[in-house]
Amino acid sequence: MLKVKAFSVYDDGSFVIGGDRMTLIAGPCSIESREMCDEVAGRISEVCHRLEIQYVFKGSFDKANRSNLHAGRGVGMEKGLTILGDIREKYHMPVTTDVHETWQCKETAEVCDILQIPAYLCRQTDLILASAETGRAVNVKKGQFMAPWNMDNVIDKIRSCGNEKIILCERGTTFGYNRLVVDMQGLLDMRKLGYPVILDATHSVQQPGSGKEFTSGNREFAPYMMNAGLAVGVDGIFAEVHPDPDHAVSDGPSQIHLDDIEAILERAKKYDELTRSLP
């Protein structure tokens, strides 16, 4: 695998992204309740502990880019950050959420170890700078409209704040109407920029706008996307996981069912180990 600038999420160096262990960023698309988040975090953390996969819990307190004006957006920032903080303390794991406005960054960084920049906002300079200035790791999802090598400008913005805790995330590129495609060469192009790359296996199988008033998807393809990325040599996987995805507030068709995640990760881990074992 290509070498990248690995960094530790924690000051004690105990959670390194871009190092010699696979990282999983996973959780429900939207924070719907404390109980649901606790169930997802608990079950995935048990699996990841057994498989020696580093685990970051993810949940969005606000889905600000919904297709439909009346679609559910989540529990809100105050309640969402409280739930994320509780998950972090209970399971002793890093947590992450996405930010959409500059004013959200400082308060979010007081709870979350990683700030996530949504794909549609990956060129929003002020948002990226505000995230980087917190000193937290910044995970930037590559826009569906951007070439992999154009993420170098995003890197420059974050580094201008003295922040080297950078993650680049692939989530598919627009391929005609209502379809996305993941360019496996592009994963290598982004890693050549020198920073860890995460593959978003669930957003990559979305079908944006194909449900007329919502985004559809093909969750059955997500495990294959995951395995393909690990075979190429990404540093980790992003996946949205839900106990009942068919009734999820958002992104149900592309979220992985919680009952399936153990078998999926067991197989994914084998691909990761094989790739890392090769010269």
Overview of this protein structure:
This protein has 279 residues and is an alpha/beta fold. The chain has a single domain, classed as TIM Barrel (Alpha-Beta Barrel), CATH 3.20.20.70. Helix content is 33%, strand content 19%. The chain contains 8 helices and 15 strands. The strands form 4 sheets. The protein has an 8-stranded parallel barrel with strand order 3-4-5-6-7-8-11-14, surrounded by 6 helices. Helix 7 (222-232) packs parallel to helix 8. The longest helix has 18 residues, at 34-51. The protein is globular and about 40 Å long.
Rg, nearest Å: 17 Å
Low-confidence stretches: 66-71
Please report the first level of CATH classification, the CATH class: Alpha Beta
Strand order of the largest sheet: 3-4-5-6-7-8-11-14
Stated plainly, the CATH topology is called: TIM Barrel
The CATH homologous superfamily is named Aldolase class I
What number of structural domains do the residues give? 1
Q: Sum up the overall morphology in one term.
A: globular
Number of strands: 15
Helix fraction bin = 25-40%
Number of helices: 8
User: Could you tell me the strand content as a percent range?
Assistant: 15-25%
Largest sheet: 8 strands, parallel, barrel
Average pLDDT number: 93
How far apart are the termini? Answer: 8 Å
